[in-house]
Specification:
3 copies of one chain form a homotrimer.
Chain A: E1 2-3, H1 4-11, E2 15-16, E3 22-23, E4 25-26, E5 36-39, E6 56-59, H2 61-64, E7 71-73, H3 77-90, E8 103-104, E9 109-110, E10 115-116, E11 121-122, E12 127-128, E13 133-134, E14 139-140, E15 145-146, E16 151-152, E17 157-158, E18 163-164, E19 169-170, E20 175-178, E21 183-186, E22 189-192, E23 199-201, E24 206-207, E25 212-214, E26 221-223, E27 228-229, E28 234-235, E29 240-241, E30 246-247, E31 252-253, E32 258-259, E33 264-265, E34 270-271, E35 276-277, E36 281-283, E37 288-289, E38 297-300, E39 306-307, H4 308-319, H5 321-334
Parallel strand pairs in A: 4-5, 5-6, 6-7, 8-11, 9-12, 10-13, 11-14, 12-15, 13-16, 14-17, 15-18, 16-19, 17-20, 18-23, 19-24, 20-25, 23-26, 24-27, 25-28, 26-29, 27-30, 28-31, 29-32, 30-33, 31-34, 32-35, 33-36, 34-37, 36-38
Antiparallel strand pairs in A: 1-3, 2-7, 21-22
Chain lengths: 335, 335, 335
């Protein structure tokens, strides 16, 4: 339990109303109770503000002026909400229990204060940093290095030799370091190219559930610091991703593509192989990127949603678009 | 073994031909033997009817009139086939074996008649309902509740606190309750928003292999009754999905979106966050939904497939479509 | 360590330069050292050739003429590189260790020279061929057959009865044989169709990390020989895929579709159910295939990427494309 005054003080932010108001956790505008603090960041939910029962609300200054309840005033209410939520969660303790039904290879180096779940495998020559929390059914193959304070959730596989920085979070079912899709076509069929590189993650990376990051073919697949990948993403071999770039779910990046820093890649995006995307590029959901992008900016490519009857007619015209445009040109010339 | 007469009687449907014909299982028109019953539901396969060796076939009345073999007549042959197939499968017994190489926390409440596979983890305070069948390598984290008659296949992860209704089926590799993708951008980088909600599934939900459903950020992610998700689907935090809605493989729904009842969502569809889709909406494969849909109906959005040579020309024109339309308008005005 | 002369001799290819040059492994043009052999296959990287420190480079004859260093001359440098890389990797030994914390059912038939990882389950009536390498946390359900020399990586699930040929490689987290998405709509809701078929893989198939291949509903799901699937792919029930066909990541094929031999399917492609694609078809990334393809060739369908401001205008025009084309037709008639 913290008072509104204490929360404001922790975050270095001003407040209005009753500073002695007691807050025990965070809640949504729609469902918070009087012991909870809520927030308004997305203007779509402004109409929920007047009826909220939250004990206090985090608001921008301009919105705060129109609200009569207790307010924590923040330039970016979503960031302030993140910080407040973390204050309450950080109070929870982590544990340092090694489950007896795990397998830790005698030649692995595991720090004293880690926790390891049931049926987890930590193989030879693995190094596990301090305070790492490793779930159930995790496979950490030989030679992997985990920095300090990593969280590896249940069912994760990290293949041989991959290196993670500090404070990385790997969600359930993710696979780090599987073979890239490297094939050469011989007369008899496909020849598999041995995949001998690794995956390197910087510090503070977060990898979503069931996401896959392939190892490099010879050199490595590299994610910088603070790269955040949502669930079900596929990162091909030898891809590089710059610091602070984030990707939403189900996006795929093909081999050897270089993505810059501070990019925002939407969900379901496809990025072909062997191209470069510069810093500060935003790609909207379900776009296909087929060429390098050399200038920062926002890009989009999905076709628009239509009623099926309209879609059928328009799609049929699209198939002949070049012909129609030629006709327009001819009509113009005849003028 | 059942006679055609018995099958017809079980389903309350009429038959034609030899009621004493013995049926031991279901088969396809192309490959069924004389001891099997087959069906015709998709008109694409009508030409297979004349040559089938099936002992009997489930047909609609109009098709049955043109077929000389033994027939079970059904208003919807696919539904009748489902019911017949289930009659033969339900005859198989389920088991109640707890594998000795599993870990069941002493504070878990597991009903007497469940089965638990090898290396499965059932953590503290989990409640497992009657007759649940749990496979190998399953992780059920603390506080999870499984209703009666759930089937959890191998390698599934259900994270802390999630609640499943009765008769849910979770296929291999699915992850229920991983953290949502909640990040706020601070000056130094991304701040992770703690994800403290859970996932709630109603009764009779089926979740496909390697599908992921994120927990809610504060409130919960909620699937109603009889929601059916295919493989490789991603459901974001705080999504709601109404009763009887189904989704085909590789579809993704971003956070806080509300989807109604009886919707049919195709494969590879993307649905952005914070929108609402009403009841009885059909979305065709690989469409992107960027706005709320307030009226029932069928929607589509994928661009048409073309030969690459045509696609190049048409796609180039599409990039200047607005300019061409303006020219058409000018030509029209000059008339 | 092998000399350039020995490598050339092994592959039956000519070389230029110092045949006594010692090579210990493969490297990229950018990062190879003098004890490594590199290659140039993608012309995008030609500019890296002049500065490489590689001890030798695999080049086509025409490129070799412009390079002064040691060269292995190959008609297809990528194929030659694959073969050279395999020479160095094949030198590594595989092991035949059965981890004591695994579960092998007494009624399974496991060849003597296989390796089985920790917490792996090999259930009743499974047959494991010679020299198979099975990782940690693998589930092989009852009745599965693995041919000789299969490699099953960690966390793979192979469900009951599936049959794999020889030399198949299944990457981490893949699920072979989960239930297909078969549902019939009854008045009360969805009726699950029992899925009683299996998955059959031919020889030399490779299945990517977290890829899912559903079992057949009645008949089987069948992949031919040398079919190569990248990560995160979804193959529906009763799909057939012909020999040597490959698919890049995140592609989905719906139920009962037949795909021919030697097809190249890009990433993020969607292929609807119940259609046929003939041999030698190439589908580019993120295309949707809605109809059968009866002629070999290259097809594409994704909408082009644009700056968001352009995309908004062009997409709006696309929604009325049929109307604009009608106007063009009217203008033409009035001429």
């Amino acid at each position: 339990m913290k008072t509104l005054y204490e929360l404001a003080d922790s975050l270095g932010l001003p407040f209005r109303g009753n500073g002695q108001c007691l807050i025990s956790s965070v809640g949504t505008l729609a469902h918070a109770e009087s012991s909870q603090i809520s927030f308004l960041a997305n203007p779509k939910y402004t109409n929920q503000l007047q009826n909220t029962r939250a004990g206090a609300v985090i608001l921008s200054e301009s919105v705060a002026d129109k609200f009569s309840g207790n307010v924590l005033i923040a330039p970016d209410p979503y960031v302030a909400f993140a910080k407040v939520a973390r204050l309450f969660v950080d109070a929870k303790q982590t544990n340092t229990y090694i489950h007896p039904q795990s397998f830790i290879h005698p030649e692995a180096q595991v720090a004293d204060d880690v926790s390891v779940g049931a049926f987890t495998v930590i193989d030879a020559d693995v190094i596990v940093g301090q305070r790492c929390q490793i779930g159930h059914h995790v496979t950490i193959e030989s030679g992997v290095v985990l920095g300090n304070d990593c969280v590896i959730k249940s069912g994760v596989t990290i293949e041989s030799g991959c290196k993670l920085g500090q404070r990385c979070i790997i969600h359930s079912g993710a696979v780090i370091g599987a073979d890239g899709f490297g094939l050469a076509r011989d007369e008899d069929g496909w020849l598999k190219i041995p995949q001998t590189g690794i995956v390197r993650l910087g510090n503070d990376c977060e990898i979503g559930a069931n996401t896959t990051i392939d190892c490099g073919t010879i050199d490595d697949t590299i994610l910088g610091n603070d790269v955040r990948l949502d669930n079900q993403i596929q990162i091909g071999h030898n891809v590089h991703i710059g610091d602070h770039t984030i990707m939403a779910g189900c996006t795929a990046v093909a081999g050897s593509t270089m993505i810059g820093r501070n990019c925002l890649i939407g969900g379901g995006v496809g990025i072909v192989g062997h191209i470069e995307i510069c810093d500060n590029v935003t790609i909207q959901a379900m776009s296909l990127v087929t060429h390098s992008i050399k200038e920062a900016g926002q890009f989009s490519g999905a076709a628009p949603l239509q009623k099926v009857a309209d879609w059928r007619k328009n799609a049929a015209r699209y198939r002949q678009l070049d012909q129609w445009v030629r006709k327009v040109n001819q009509l113009e010339k005849k003028k």
